[in-house]
Each structure stands twice: as C-alpha cells, then as structure tokens.
Amino acid sequence: MIPAKFDYTKPGSVDEAVSALAGGGEDAKVIAGGQSLLPLLRLRLSFPDLLVDVGGLGELRGVRDEGETLWIGALTTLDEAQRDPVIAQHCGLLAQTAALIADPAVRHRGTVGGALAHADPAGDLPAVATALDATMIARGPGGERAIGAGQFFLDYLTTALAPGEILTGIRVPKLGPGWGYRYEKFHLTAQAWAIVGVAALARRADGHVAEARLGLTNMGLVPVRAQAAEQAVAGAEASAQALRAAAERADEGTQPPSDLHGGSDYRRHLARVLTARALAVASGVS
Ligand SMILES: Cc1cc2nc3c(=O)[nH]c(=O)nc-3n(C[C@H](O)[C@H](O)[C@H](O)COP(=O)(O)OP(=O)(O)OC[C@H]3O[C@@H](n4cnc5c(N)ncnc54)[C@H](O)[C@@H]3O)c2cc1C
C-alpha cells in the first residue's frame, strides 16, 4: 500500500530536528533507518503529518569510551553495533544480540536508537538495554535528560520520550572483569522476531555466581527483569543444577501474551529454559 501523504524535512543539526519535531506536535515523527516505521506507514498503521529525518546527523553517530561507561549514538546501526571493537570489548551482550536481529540488509539500515524508541515487545534490544542498566539520553525543547531503561519502556510501542524529544544516544556501564553474557532467542524461522528472548549477565567469583541481571523479551508489553531468578542465582554455586533451579523462577511476575506464535504458558516454559541456557553461558558453566 502507498503511505498516506506526509511532509518531510531533513534537518542539519539536532537542535533543528528538535524544533521541527516540537513544531509538528503529536503528528510529527522521527525517522532514522526506517526499518520499523516504513512498514507501518505502508500499512497505514501510522500516518504522521511530518517526518523528521535524523539520518544525516553526525551528532547522533559514533561510540565513545567515557571511562566507566560507553556512549553509543542513537544512529549506530545494528551492523555497526555488531562489529564495533569498543562495544565488543565492554558491552559484548549488545554486539552478540545485534548479530541475531533480522538480516544483513535490515541491520545495515536499522539503528540502535530506532530499535529502542520503537519499543516493540518482541524487539531484542529493549531487554538487552534493561539487563545492561542502560540510560537513554533524550534531547527536547527543554534540553537534555537521562531516562533509565527501567523507566523508558512504558507500554506497547510506547516510551517515555515526550513529543518533541529525540533519543540522541544511550549510556551503558562497562562490564568489568568476571562478567559474562549471553542472549538466547527462540524464534520459529531464522532472522525473525523473538517468541521469547533472554538477556543474561552474570559475574562469577570463586566458583559462584556473585550477581546476575536478566532481561526478558516478549514476556509482557515491556521488557522486564526476571527479579526472582536474579535473586535465586545470586551467591549460588556456578553449577548447571543450581542455575537450572534459579531459572525455574524466570517467569515469576511476568504477563506473557498469547498469540499465533504461542500461548502464555508456552512462553513461560520458554523463559525458564532459555534463562537456564543463557545463565550457563554467562556464568561459564558448560
Ligand atoms: C524484516 C525485518 C526483520 C526484523 N527482525 C527483527 C528482529 O529479529 N529483532 C528485532 O529486535 N527487530 C527486528 N526488526 C526491527 C528492526 O530491528 C528495527 O526496525 C530497527 O532497528 C529500527 O531502527 P530504525 O532506525 O530503522 O527505526 P525507524 O524505523 O526509523 O523508527 C522506528 C521508530 O523509532 C522512532 N525513532 C527512531 N529513531 C529515533 C530517535 N533517534 N529518537 C526518537 N525516536 C526515534 C521512530 O519515530 C519510529 O517510531 C526487523 C525489521 C524488519 C524490517
């Protein structure tokens, strides 16, 4: 289908983009790689009056080592996230997950910022950002503000970004020594969205799992932390049996949907199985 009519602007700076977006109110939308927005426009599920194309803004590009944290520009493509050596060294979970998203064509256009701002419950990066304790940096007419991942995803395809605000980048704490990671994704066909996904980070010390952070994909309208499993695994022996026991609690407190791809009980089962697998790799337990 042909999209409904819209105006289009390609600003030369983030400030210009913010003014254009704020001027367009609720009927204006940012477009970055277009990999989620264009299909919605073509299906006429979204019909903004104005598209603000941020694709050319150098300020939104790049990866910076800030000491304790990494700054990853919103326009970093999924392909760049997969290959960037600084991300691989300090935030390997993001690199590993980006490689599992869609296909090379989508990864070359789709951006980290777009994947987060789109807030698809089946999208992989929201759960990863949640497990990483990432902070989203937004710029709007009132200036810049930081939004923790736990406060960023509000509902189905809905984030805390206010009308007129642009996601400029994310800030991610570096993973120090002892941390392992793994994203496990269950999908029916290669290069498709997750029916359930689990992002696991674990810090191992003295044969035990000192702490773990677990983000769940598609176990509710927004990404959630598997807090009961995180608490169960903290301090546990790094053994397959102990990790499986903790993973049995992965679906506690979740509200997984039932749809054509699977019922909520099936998703609960997947969350437990995938959590055990992800924790095993993240904790170095073969
Ligand atoms: C065939 C196909 C397969 C896919 N498979 C997967 C998959 O397996 N896993 C997965 O997680 N995703 C998957 N995706 C989705 C893909 O990852 C996202 O479409 C892409 O990353 C979104 O980034 P984008 O730059 O293209 O965003 P756009 O499509 O440009 O924008 C998406 C949304 O985010 C908003 N937005 C974008 N950038 C900003 C910004 N800087 N500030 C504020 N708002 C912004 C837009 O207004 C829009 O609402 C798939 C997509 C396709 C087409």
Architecture overview:
The protein has 286 residues and is of the alpha+beta class. The chain is 33% helix and 26% strand. The chain contains 12 helices and 14 strands. The strands form 4 sheets. Strands 4-5-10-6-7 form a 5-stranded antiparallel β-sheet. The termini are far apart. Bound molecules: flavin-adenine dinucleotide (FAD). Residues 29-37, 54, 74, 78, 101-102, 106, 109-111, 113-115, 117-118, 123-125, 161, 166-167, 192-193 line the site of flavin-adenine dinucleotide. The site of flavin-adenine dinucleotide has 31 residues, from strand 2, helix 6, helix 7, helix 8 and strand 10.
Bound molecules: flavin-adenine dinucleotide
User: What is the alpha-carbon Rg in Å?
Assistant: 19 Å
Q: Tally the helices: what do you get? A: 12
Biggest sheet, spatial arrangement of strands: 4-5-10-6-7
- The percent range for helix content is 25-40%
Which spans have pLDDT < 50 for at least 5 consecutive residues?
none
Which range does the strand content fall in?
Answer: 25-35%
Largest beta-sheet characterization: 5 strands, antiparallel
Order of helices and strands: EHEHEEEHHHHHHEEHEEEEEEEHHH
Structural class: alpha+beta
Average residue pLDDT: 96
Shape: globular
Number of strands: 14
> What is the CA–CA distance across the termini?
49 Å
